[in-house]
Amino acid sequence: MSEPAPLSDQERADLVAYLDGELTGEAARAMEAKLSLDPATRAEADALRRTWELLDFLPQPQPSLRFTHRTLERLGPLRADEQQRRQRWRMRCFGLGWVAALLVSAWVGYAGYNWLVPREPGERELLQDLRILENKRLYERIETLDFWRALDAPDLFGDETSTS
Amino acid sequence: MSATGESSTQLALRDPEIRLMLRVREDDAGAFEELVELYQQRLVALMHHLVGNAEEAEDLAQEVFLRVYRSRKKYRPRSKFSTWLFTIANNLALNALRSRQRKPTLSLPAQDSGPLGPRPAEQLVPDRGSGPMRRLERQELTERIRQALEGLNERQRMAVVLNKFEDLNYAEIAEVMGLTTKAVKSLLSRARENLRAALSSYIYMDGEHAREGSER
Q1: Which of A1, A10, A57, B189 could be joined to A16 by an S-S link, Cβ 3.0–4.6 Å?
Q2: What domain count does chain B have?
Q3: Per-residue model confidence as pLDDT tens digits over A2-40
Q4: How far apart are CA B216 and CA B202, in angstroms?
Q5: CATH number at residue B139
């Protein structure tokens, strides 16, 4: 009688998964069938199960009685460090707040000044209104807009004296 | 949303440990202490199985708690709280094991828990047999099992410890270790095969040989 072929890696992985309850549905049924029909797979399963059970012999280590106390003690410097960092952050925010407040008040001051105090016209604006400025005295003598429009009529002075 | 499609609010309502962690996040006085009390045994045991040294295991477990505290403000309940905690533990333990590989240290036998000798709990390991011979056999067996576990690579060891002692399923182990479920399946299969090879002479110690095996 020939030796049964050893399990392949995939077959062994499936067998271990089956023992761990991780194989479901068709795969689980196929493994059950294999186990009931193949003594070699059954022996392999038994050895793997027994090996797994041997791990129960390992002692379950317990933490020392002062474990909680020592852990909380190590928390102390951490908390102090966090508090320091929070304080530094608060100071930074406070400083930034001051800088922001200064910038806002400077802008408000500038805008308010421009709004309240009329600005002297610049050279360009003066040049733009040069003709009006030159005829200022004449314009001042015009009392109504209708009269000014009447002066512009072509049949009064011809085209030469257009006000525009 | 969690892997199961639950919203974080639903998770928080269902899992009392998440509610506790949310209290820690809100700086509720006493909540952190409650958390340490609740998880210290599991974390110390997990670390002990991984690093094989009581002092180092306690230090690492403490470091896990401190990291939890430091990152409490960033905590969002996306999956089971224990999964989040074990993810931190996994990262820390793997770092510790890797740095130990770089500068090897002498590890003490599991029973030498400190200058005062074995702790009471270690002495309370159930002794199924009686008599000095039986105790000696048992001690030897425990030592061989510990060596077999230490013989696994760090990832296999982590997967075994989470599966065996923390009852985490493959999907949870995958989340903790940042792997796919398929990778965990293969990792655990290889780990169990390695353990079986290392402990083959102890599997049928009680004289009961596998009848199935003899049928081969």
Answers
A1: B189
A2: 2
A3: 555 677 888 999 999 999 999 989 999 999 999 999 998
A4: 20
A5: 1.10.10.10
Q: Is A61 close to B195, i.e. CB distance below 8 A?
A: no
Domain span at residue B52 reads 1-104
Its sign, for the CA torsion A74, B159, B99, B113, is positive
Task: Identify whether residues B199 and B154 lie together within a single domain.
Answer: yes
> Which string of DSSP letters, residue by residue, matches A87-113?
HHHHHHHHHHHHHHHHHHHHHHHHHHH
Domain boundaries, chain A: 9-57, 80-119, 123-157
Residues 151-180 of B with CB under 8 A from A: 160, 163-165, 169-170
Tell me the ipTM for this assembly: 0.75
* Chain B touched by A64 (CB under 8 Å): yes
Of A9, A39, A68, the CB nearest to B40: A68
- Residues A27, A131: Cα–Cα separation, whole Å: 101
Instruction: Give chain B's residues under pLDDT 70.
Output: 1-8, 11-12, 102-132, 205-216
Query: Among B70, B104, B138, where does a domain finish?
Result: B104
B109 falls within a domain: no
